[in-house]
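Z., the sequence and structure:
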Amino acid sequence: MENDIKKFHLYRKEDISGTSGVGVVAIGVVFPKDGKAVLEWCSGFDTITIFGSVDEMMLIHGHDGRTELIYDL
């Protein structure tokens, strides 16, 4: 159904900042109405961030292809 919230996680292959580590570093959802993405970090920092889109989020956190966006089934 096109109105479903999409769940995803970010998988980081290399941590260039030395902050979040490697592997699954964050989980999130994309809302169907406007495409906003909400991201929660799995690190020791209790941070939740809202982005205007998945593309915006990946521009900031994609680390030039070192982080993969994986949609959960």
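DSSP finds one helix and five strands in the chain. The mean pLDDT is 89.

Let me know what you think.
H.
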